[in-house]
Every structure is written in structure tokens, then in C-alpha cells.
Amino acid sequence: MQRLFRDIGLLLVIILAYSCKKNIEAGIKTNISGTTYDDNSQQPIPNVPIYINEYTTGFYGPIFRATIDSTKSGSDGNFNISFSTTGHGSEYRIVFQPGDDFLTFQNGIILNVGKDTMIRFSAIKFHVLKARFQITQNPNPPLRVSTVVGLQASVWGTNNDTTVFMKILPNLVNEIQFTITNVDSPSIYNIQLDTINFSGFQDTFNMVFPLVPENFPIRR
What we know:
The mean pLDDT is 92. The radius of gyration is 24 Å and the shape is elongated. A hairpin with a 2-residue loop joins strand 2 and strand 3. It is built from one helix and 16 strands. It folds into two domains: 24-125, Immunoglobulin-like, CATH 2.60.40; 127-219, Immunoglobulin-like, CATH 2.60.40. With 220 residues, it is mainly beta.
């Protein structure tokens, strides 16, 4: 019990310390330069929106206040942006938004205000998979199809032959998961997981998937 009280007290001290974080004084200039590129093909990503966001300090963490400047990457993927602090924010972040056609694990990067910085933003462009699903003996439609992007298709019918366009990562190993809800229990799933390397960088890949959901292994 004493340890619990000690841990709660430490947490409160951390929260209070953060909530007392002061706004940065106005007029401090920061220069940011960098590049945006596809980490898979190593090609530049042009025309990517880039924002400088200002945050104030809330009780549980930073609170977005305003976008104070923005730019876009050029045809070579390079960008430059400068901003000055307003006096109303305690934290500044640069945000890279390549759009839904790209996979990125980078979000806002906290900036060291007043220090000129070079930043490299990376993402991976999705390509298109033209997938033909030849489904037989599905005891519990729909068949749900997911990739790294998440749920991409729901296919109905006990038997079906249909074509679906999906997003995949080119020249990399992709996992495609096929799922149905177990007939006897809605909390259990029958799943088939296919691991496929889509070699190359063509715009559209083609593949046929013969699927028998009745034979999918049960996953709890």
C-alpha cells in the first residue's frame, strides 16, 4: 500500500511539473531544412505538406494551439521553413503529412527552438494489388481481408469469384490476413495468413487467391 501511495505521489509530481511548463518567449527564430524520401525506393517524395504546429501545456500533456507556418517539399523532396515563436506556446513540432498513399511511422517531431535543424522524413509508398478472390465454402460470410493498412475488403457469399483492388508495399514482404467469425462462437476467429513478397516496383500487381474459409485454422 505504501508503494502504491509513493507511485501515485510520483506521478502527481511529474504531471504537476509538466503542467507548470512555461510558454517560450516570443520572437525566437528557428530555421528547418530537410528532405522527404521513400525509404523503399530511395526516391524523393515531392509536394508533401509540412506544418509547424504550436502547443500549450495541459494538465495531461501538450494541447494543440495553432499551425503557425507551413510549406511543401519541392520536386527534389527538399524543403526549407523558418518560423518565430509567438509567446503563446510551450512546445513546437514539425509535422510531415505525405497522405494516404504512404505508410509512415513518423509523426510530429519536437523542435529545439532557436537551433537550426536538418530533418529527414521518410515514408513508403503503397502500390496497388489487383487481387482475385476465388472463394468456396465460406460457412460464415463475410470474408474480411486485411493488410498492414488495416481492413481493406469484406467479401460476402458462400461462394464468390470477385476482384478487389488493395494497397500493398512493393518489393517488400506483405502479410495478407483472411478472417471469418467462427460459426459456433463470435469471439473466436478462423484465420488464414499469407506472406507474400511483391517483388519490383510496378504500379499494379496481379494475384489470384483460391480460398476455402471452411478450412481456415481457428484462432482465439
